[in-house]
Amino acid sequence: MTKQYDADVVIVGCGCAGGILARELTDAGLHVISLERGPDISSDEYAMDELKFPIRNKVLWGPQDEPRFTWRSDDRKSTERVITGWNGWGPGGDHLHWGAQSWRFQPATFKAKSVFGQVENGAIIDWPISYDDLEPFYQKFEERVGVSGDHTKDPFNPPRKKPYPMPPTIPIYATRHFVEAAKAKGYDPFPVPGAINSVDYDGRSACGYCGFCQSYGCTVEAKGDVGLTEIRKARQNPNLEIRFHSRAFEVTVDQHGHAEGVKYFDKNKKVHTITGRIVIIAANYLESTHLMLLSKSAQFPNGIANNGDQVGRYFHMRDITQLIGLFDEPMNAYLGPTPRWAVNQFADDNFSPEEYGEDFVMGGNITGADQNGLAGQPIEFTGAPTPEGIPNWGEEYKDFIKQAYTHHYNSRIYLTEPPQDEKHIDLDPKVKDSFGLPVPRVTFDWHPQTSKQLAFLRQRAYEIYEKAGALQIWGGELGDPWVLNSHAGGTTRMGDDPSESVVNRYCQTHEVDNLFVVGSSSFPTIGAYNPGETVGALAYWVAAFIKEGAKKGNLFH
Asked: Boundaries of each Glucose-methanol-choline oxidoreductase N-terminal domain copy (predicted)?
């Protein structure tokens, strides 16, 4: 007797990767049930409200007062910090609050071990796929979500068959000021590609240059995200069912060790089980790893697809540092879309550190002129560091804020953290969340080369500020390693060798052939660029593989 399933495919997570997979697979005629832990959200609920969204994190839509993970610097220590708050709940996930920078990774990133070699205590490997494999799927992401840019202005642009579907947005005065100084230093700054409509596109309005981008949902839908694009269109297909307020906590297996379905809590904490021929975990890297470690069974006592002890290993995260410059004229950097212009000369293999007397590998990029903080609005600016000699309270501080808010701009310095075997995620033995589940524990600290990278790139940015005539320059310190951002991966990494990876080149787990893990957790390395577009391209790549299997009558189980 043929076994009956609730769906052909069960997808955990309805963010960037999960939303793309949902549309692609339902368009191919497969019945998909998507589990989303957050509420259903529409753009009618967005507002230009700094206190509500970036300050109180309402844009994340999840609870901000319960443990999400714990942190320790190395595995010889017990838990050092308990971190509360959640990321990206609702259709679109982290895309709901992203800044919309839409980079392609460089070809060298996919061959990191071959190109850059190994670092001390490092675990760098080559990806099992190449840039050429993903190139058509990068293009698909750019067209589906809507990306503006001009690759001809970047001398280090990776090969591409088509231009961006929209021209770049118009740089504001602060950005033009930064660009002139960077050019005077001999660099070739160019517009950062961004999922921001520079013109009306696919039924959504062009950008109005209000500046409410990162940490906000766009009130006119000019910021492209998978929730507004792929998920919105997928929901018109009767093949898709999205179950909101559904917190997955276990991937179940049958007696043969195949993935059978998913157990989840509803908003009343009642347990449900759903079955599928294929299970795809497509959550944030932390939650994907957490779910796998929680999914223990007789066949997988250490978590599903983890008999090789690879789930949670090789965690790495990019530091994002902000260098601030103060000028004698208004810059009003808070205006305009978040993606600005970049100096790409010092990223990945675009340069040789040895020529500068440096011994780090890979590199990073520098953008400007950015607003300080995530959203760039005035309340958040009061949390910025002050230059030497300026107190952070009192009348003198108030006078400084009045001038500096409108007369400053930022450079963001994006570093490259190498994966290391000893940096990992497991389950905390003591701390539990409100569902009674052990929270993930992150064991991580910066590699010694990261400080070298920062010192080098900070000096390059500092020199641009000097050329721009900055009155004061400050900031640019290495971030705290317990403040996780969405630029991380490695914990379910892809590879050809099951002894040092969790999934294969199609994000299919080595140990369970009908279980896939799609997202930045599958990245062996991240490189100098924001990972969002590569998450999307990878989701299209995996969807194509599953669709081809379905055509042949093979749903891997």
From this structure: 176-296
